[in-house]
Amino acid sequence: MSTMEIAVLGAGAMGSMFGGRLAEAGHSVTLIDINQPHLEAIRANGLCVETDGNTRAIKNIAAMRPGATDKTPELLLVFTKSMHTRAALSGIEHLLGETTAVLTLQNGLGNVEAIRDFVPLANVLIGVTTWPADLVGPGSVSSHGEGNIRMMSADGERTSKVSAVAEALNSAGLNCQVDDNVWAAIWEKVAFNAALNSICAVTGTTVDQLGLLDDSKSLALTVAAEVVSVANASGVSADLNTCSTNIVHAIEQHRGHKPSMLQDVLAGRKTEIEGINGAVVDVARTLNVSVPHTETLAKLVRLIDARNASAVAK
């Protein structure tokens, strides 16, 4: 196996877990973030990774702020929140080489457009992942169960760059599949998040609590149907049955789970509503597709964001 020079932009739960797994597999990995306690803990003790009861400290991993490294990576993994993508990339623009591949596995829509401001489209890879991860504390991340990655170049070309990145991810056991139909997977995840994240954020409920009423489960499925209708109208073959099955499974199985949007609301942080429901509404308008439930939830979460911002400003 050939090893890669890899940088991870955004060393939260997902970025740290992916970076740790890739470093374990022998790749040269640099985590880039502004969370100083997290960076210092990794530098002092390594990155603590716990997967299904197996805990280890990964020492062969660098952790630094954006301006503290000058290594040009072969692969840059972007794990910031979608609304921070441009600002985060501008902070490490000096690292991006002519051939650096940039892979986004972020939630929502609009990530490719943001990355294209910094690198050619031929260097942009887009994908979706089902791997779970939680940041336990500074320098410590956990992940349980199995996940996968579906990934492709943003321009649809199966290049050697795509193959090399897939090989690197698979060397770390991350189950990466090169998928020509990746946009369908991305829209299906947007539909899932637009339904569950926004409803839980507005109501303060965990995912399984949406099963307390048939109305709330029905609302989630209706939002998913709206999002899929927008995807289909834009020429993407997202599948409503897949989305509906995933949503029902989550409501029945994800007991006590607080989606990231609800976690942001509870912590007083700005949510990713614009990259999910808001982005769907924007595309729907250009295609003249009606998405009333998705739009109403976007407006309600924006109000919560405004309330939290107002509280911080006082």
UniProtKB/TrEMBL annotation:
Keywords (A to Z) from UniProt: NADP, Oxidoreductase, Pantothenate biosynthesis, Plasmid
Chain coiled-coil ranges: none
Pfam families found in the cross-reference section: ApbA, ApbA_C
Keyword Nucleotide-binding: no
Any GO CC annotation of this UniProt entry: cytoplasm
Record carries keyword S-adenosyl-L-methionine: no
Signal sequence bounds: none
Catalyzed chemical reaction(s): (R)-pantoate + NADP(+) = 2-dehydropantoate + NADPH + H(+)
UniProt domain Ketopantoate reductase C-terminal: residue ranges: 181-304
PANTHER family per UniProt: 2-DEHYDROPANTOATE 2-REDUCTASE, 2-DEHYDROPANTOATE 2-REDUCTASE-RELATED
Family: Belongs to the ketopantoate reductase family.
Function comment: Catalyzes the NADPH-dependent reduction of ketopantoate into pantoic acid.
Protein name per its UniProtKB record: 2-dehydropantoate 2-reductase
